[in-house]
Every structure is written in C-alpha cells, then in structure tokens.
Amino acid sequence: MAVAIAVWCWVIIMALATGSFLGVVISRLPNHEPILLGRSECPHCHTRLGALDLMPVASFVLQKARCRYCGAKIDPYHLWVELAALVVVLLAVWRGGSTRNFLDLCLLGFILMPIAWIDATHRWLPDRIVLPGILIGLAMCWWIAPHALVAHIIGAALGFAVLATVRGTFRRVTGRDLFSLGAAKLLALAGAWTGWQYLGPILLCAAIVGIALALIDRARHKPAGPDPRIPLGTYMAPFIYLAALRLLP
Length: 249
Fold this sequence. Notes:
Elements: H1 2-28, H2 58-62, H3 77-96, H4 99-122, H5 127-144, H6 149-174, H7 181-194, H8 199-219, H9 232-244
Helix pairs in contact: 1-3, 1-4, 3-4, 4-5, 4-9, 5-6, 5-7, 6-7, 7-9, 8-9
C-alpha cells in the first residue's frame, strides 16, 4: 500500500510539473521568447519568481491567487494547464494498459495541449510542435504496433491531403482562408497517431463543435475577432486524444 501511494504521488507531481512546463511553452512560444533559458517573472511588478512561487497548483492556492511581491491577481491560466496535464496522465493510466501505451497517450496529450491552446488564442498552429509530433507519432506506432505502421503513414498523408485540398478550394472560390494550413498538418498528426480510420470521426466531431460554437456566438451577437479563421486545431485536438483513447466511434 505504501509503495502504491508513493507511486501515485510521484505520478501526480510529475504530471503537474509537466503541466507547469507546458504553460511556459504556451505563453512564450507565440511571442518567440526563450522557453528553457528565460526566467519566470510577475507580469505586473516584473519580480523574478523563485521556486516557492512556481510550485504547480500549490503556489496558486497558498498565495490565494495573488503575487506575494506586489499583490496583483495571478492569471489562473497556469493552474488550468497544470490540471489539464494531470487529467491527461490519469486518462493514460486508465486506458493505457501497458507502460508503452501509457507513455504513448501521455506524449500525445502533452503535444496536443499547447497546440489547442495556442490555436484558440492566436489562430496559429506552431510547426515546432506539430511537425515533430507527426514523426513522434509514427515512431511510437513503430515501437508499440509495427504491424499498423503502414495504416498510420497512410493516415498522416491522407490527413494532410484532405484538409489542404479543402483549404485550397475554399481560398480559390472565396479569396480568403477558412483555416490555417497548420490544421492540415495537425490532421496529419492525427493520422500518424491514430491511423487513417479515425480521420473521418475526428473531422466530423470537430466540425460539429465548431459550427455549434459559431451559432452560439451569432445568437449572442458576439463580434468576430481580428482573425476570422476557424481555430480548427482547437476543435480537433480533444477528439484526436479521444480517438487515441479508443473512446471515439
């Protein structure tokens, strides 16, 4: 029992620490700031933060969501990212079944988190995450299920081709972009991790969610943002992960 508790504590700590790192990636990558070398600081008083200020979840709770130097309110964004990373790990424990599958699901979840968040806030799918994600997905397939590698390679190629064709056709007809080319690369990532069989369900579910949210915004008379492109990556990411968990029909 003691060993099991110790293992679970370690898993939770590592999940939250990974979420803390992903929060840094999400906040710095769009601004082209150094990720590994940059020091964290309060965005209000610009005081450099120490270890006690950067403990995942604990710092936010103990400091009552305020900077202990200037008293300014802390954006809960980092807290949500850390908790989301914990959810990814717990789902991987639930559906993994083996160490290899557990690592596979954790890696995919940690790759998709910054992709979804950055696309939602910046309408940008960074190649620095998406393109290595495709290669990692194929490598994990070769490691775990080499007999399925051909289906995953086909999925990556087909995923890119489908959305790139849709985007190009829409642009020729209307003269504008419906979504970024990064969405086609993300669907290639989906095919690399889940195989071509899940591309249809992923696209369908993402489209339904996107249309539903657009209709809700229109009903509320919410003005369009400065970038009218659909954050398709944000809508696809959770369904890619559900497909990997084998929870998508």
